[in-house]
Design a protein that fits this description.
By secondary structure, the protein is of the alpha+beta class. The chain is built from 30 helices and 31 strands. It is elongated and about 130 Å long. It starts with a helix and ends with a helix.
Amino acid sequence: MAKDVDLLVKNAKTYNEPGSQVFKDANIIKKVFIQRKTEIDHAEPTKTSVRIRNRRSAQGDRLSAITLALQYGSENDEDALLSGSVHYEEGESEAECLSSSMDMGNPVFQLYEAVRGGRNSQGPLLSEPFLQLPSRKEYPDYYQQIKQPIALQQIREKMKNGEYENVEQMDSDLTLMFENAKRYNVPTSGISKRALRLQQILLLKKRELLRRGDEEDQDSILSSDTGTGSATKRKIHKKNVKNRMKALYAAVTEAREAGTNRRLCDLFMVKPSKKNYPDYYKVILEPMDLKTIEHNVRSKRYATEEALMDDMRLMFRNARHYNEEGSQVYNDANILEKIVKDKRKELGASPEEDTDNMGSPKLKLRKSGGSPKKSNKYLTPLQQCLNELHMVGGRYQDVDALVEDFAVMFNNACTYNEPESLIYRDALLLHRVLLDTRRRQEGGEEGGSPPAVGPLVMELIRNLFVSVLGHQDEEGSPEKPPLNFDVIRANVDRGRYRRLDVFQEHMFEVLEKARRLHRTDSEIFEDAVELHQFFIKIRDELCKNGEILLSPALSYNSKHLQSDVEQEKREKLPKEMEEDKLKSEEENKEEGAKAEDPAGGGAWPAGPERTYRQDCSFENSTYHVGDCVYVQPAEANLKPHIVCIERLWEDEAGEKWLYGCWFYRPSETFHLATRKFLKQEVFKSDYFNKVPVSKILGKCMVMFVKDYFKLQPEGVRPEDVYVCESRYSARNKAFKKIKMWAVPAGVRFVLRDVPLPVVRVASMYAKQMSGGEAGCQYYDQLHHNNMWLKVGDCVYVQSHGLTKPRVGRIEKLWVRDGAAFFFGPIFIHPEETGHEPTRMFYKREVFLSNVEETCPMTCVLGKCVVSSFKDYLSCRPTEVSEEDVLLCESRYIESEKQMKKFKGLKRFSLHAKVVDDEVYYFRKMIVPQKEPSPLLNKKIEELELKLADMDEGGEDLDDLEDEDQAPETPSMPIIQTPLASDLDIMPYTPPPQVLHASTRTQ
C-alpha cells in the first residue's frame, strides 16, 4: 500500500505544475499517510477493541476519500468548493485539520462526515449549498427570517474546538441547519430537496452509530470478563452475521418462477431510469435496489441483520406502492418477500435478536406494505411519538411546523379508519382542539395577514405630491407654475387617488397647461419642464422601477418627456418668432397699428400684401369666420374633412385662403375597440392648418353635446349636423371632455319637435372573434353596472343553495341584442369538494373546477381576484380589497374526488389601450394562514348525535335487562303485557324503546 501511495503522489506531482492545487494535495496526502502509518506501527498491540478497529477503518475510508478528491482538483474557487477543500488554511486538508483536534473514529465526526460527503446518484455533493451561510448583503431577509443561522463551516469550527460531547448535539445542529433551509426556501426548490435527502442520510447514519455504540459497550463489558478469548468470539460472531446476510441476499437473487424458470429479481436489480420514469422519484422518497444492498453487504455497511431486512422490506414496499396491484412487479415483490422471510426462519434466530429484544419498547408506525391502500394515499404518515421526539430534539422552529405535523397525523387517521370508528371521532375532536388552542395562542391576531395595499398606494402618492410641490431650483426658489394645485391637493388629502396613473395624468395636465400657455423662453415654461422631470425621477424612485408598484404610469419616462418638449418647441418657436417680428414692426410704425394676434395659428409668412377678412364668397356661397365647412380630402376614397374657420384672407395673387381647426371622425382617432360613439359624433383635434377656399365642398354644422339632442340649426340638412363632446389629442392619443363651447353668432337654433335619443354605436374597429356567434359583438373590456371588466378578470356569480357565491373567470366577453354575457371556468369553495374533515385549507382558497359556463352579466355580484400561490404571497392588485383576493393552486377533479396542482391560468393578450391593473409588491413575502375544513364542526356534531343515540340505546337495553330479572307482580294487570303476536304486527321501532315506554305506562 505504501508503494502504491508513493506512486500515486509521484504521478500527481509529475503531471501537474508545482504551484497547482493537485501538487499541494499530493504532498499533503503523502504527509498524512506517513503520519498515520507511523502511529499504527508504534501502536500498542494489546488494544484490540472494536472501537479502535472501527477508528482505523474510518481513517482508511477518509484517506480513500482524499485520494478520490484528487481527480476533481482545480485552482479556482468553485472547483475547490466542490472538491471539499474550501475554507481550510493553505496546505491543510480537512482530515488533517480535524485530526489534530479530535479522533476521526469519533461518532461525532463520522456523523458530520456522512452529511458532508453525501452525494446524489449523479455524483455531486449534496452539501454544497450548506457549506457557508448566505451573504448578508445579497440575502438580508434571510437573517431577518432565520433566528439561528448555521452552516457546515460553523459546525466544523465547533467540532474542531471540542464543543460536541455526543452525537445528539451534532444531530441537533445539523437538523437546525436543514430546518433553516426548508423554512427559507420553497418546498419545490433544489435546496429544500437536498435538505430532505441529507436529513435522511443523517437519520440513517445516526441510527447506525447508536447501534454500533451499543454493541461496543457490550463488547467492552464482555472483554473485561472473558479476556482475550472474547475477541475471537466477536470475530466469529461478525463472520456468522455476514454469512447470514449473504445467504439472505442469495435467496432473493436465485429465486426463479416455477414453469418459466424466470429470475424474479431481474426487475429489482437496479433502480428505474430517471429519464424513462421521472414520476417514480416523485412518488418514492427512498429508492432501493439489490445492487445497493449487495454493495452495503460487501462494504459492511449493515451493522445488523435487521438493517439488511429493513432495506429489503423498503425495496418490496416501494414496488407495491408504485405499481398496480396484480401487476408482475407487484406479485414478484410479494413472492420475494415471502422467500426472504422463509429463508430467515430457516437460518434460525440471529445472534443479535436477544439483545434487540431486551431494549425498551418502540413505538412504530404501521407498515405501509401491509396496507397498500393507505400507502397509495399519502407518503409521510406521522405518529404522535415522532412529534414528541421532534419536540424534545428541538427540531420545530415554530408552532406552525408542529401544527402542520399534527394536522397530517389526524388526516391520516381519518383517511385510514372508518367514519363510525372511535379513532375517526377522536381525530376530529383532537384536530378541533389543536386549532382552537393555536387560535388562542395567537390572541386572535392575523399573524400572516398581508398589509393593506390601498393605504400604501395613497402614502406613495402623497409622498410624490409633497416632493414635487417642495422641489426647488438651484437658487433655492420653488419651481411651481402659477396654476391651481388645490384640486389635486384636496384629492390627495382625502385619499381619492387609488391609482398612480390617474394621479400622474392630473399632474401632467397641470404641467402641460403651464407649458402650453407660456412661451418657450419664459421661466414658467422652464419650471414646468423641470417639475415634470423631477416628478418622473421621484416616481421611479418610490416605485423602484416597478419592483414595489407596477403601474401603467411607469411606461412614460424621461425620454418621452424630452421628445414631447422638443415637439412642442418646434411647433411654438415659429409662432413666437413671428410674434416677435410683428411686435418689432409695430413698434417701428408711426401709426401704431396693431396686427391681429394669430392665437393658435400655424406658421405662415406675414406681410402687408395679406388682406384679412371676416367673410368671403366662393361659388355663390358666403363663408364667415366661425363657420364649419367640408374640405376636399387628400385621397379620393376618404370622407371630406370638417374644418372650423378661424381666419380668412386673400394673398397678393388674389387667391383666397382659410385657416382653422380640424374635427376628426371616430375612424380618424386612435381608440379602444370597445369604445362606443354617438351617431354623427366628431372630435375637436389639436391640428390646425390652412387650405385654399377653392377646396371647400360645402357647409356643415358642429353642435355641442348639450345642445345637439334638444336643438337644431335652421337651414342645415340633418346629415350635415354633427355633435361634439370631447377634444382629441393626437400626440397623447387621448380624449377629454369639453367644458366650454363657443356658439357661432350667425346661426339660429330652434327646438326639435322630439328630442333625439342618446344612442351610442360600436366602433368600426370592434373585432369579430374567430369562431364567435353571429350577431355577437366581442370585447376586450366592457363597462357594466359601474364596473370596468376585462378578459381575464374574475367575478362573483350568483349561486343558489350555497352560502358563498361562486367565482367565475371571464375568458370571453360579448354583447348580443343589448345584453352582455361572459364565458369562462368556475371556481368552487372547499365546502363544495369531497375531502376529509381534518384537511386544512388556506384562507380564501378556491379550486378550479371542470365546469365552464356562459353567464349573463346580470348575475355578476362584484369583482374579485384569483391569485396563484406565488402571487398571493408576493403582491396584491391595488384596487381590490383583501377580502376579495382569493388563492388557487389546485384543480378539483370531480370524478376522482382529488385536488391536483396545475401550472396556472390562461393568460390573454389584450388591446394596448386596455387599462392594466396596478400591482403592489410586498417587501417581504407573507406567510399564508390555514384554516380548518368547513366540514369539521358539522362532522363532529353528526358523530356526537349518532353516539348519543347509541348511548340511549345502551341505557334502554340495561333497563330491559333489569325488567327481565325483576320478580313478577301478581297484582299487575295481565292485559297491559303485549303478546308476541301483537309485537309481530307492530310497526318497526327499536325494541328497547317500545318496552321501556310500556313500562312507564304501567
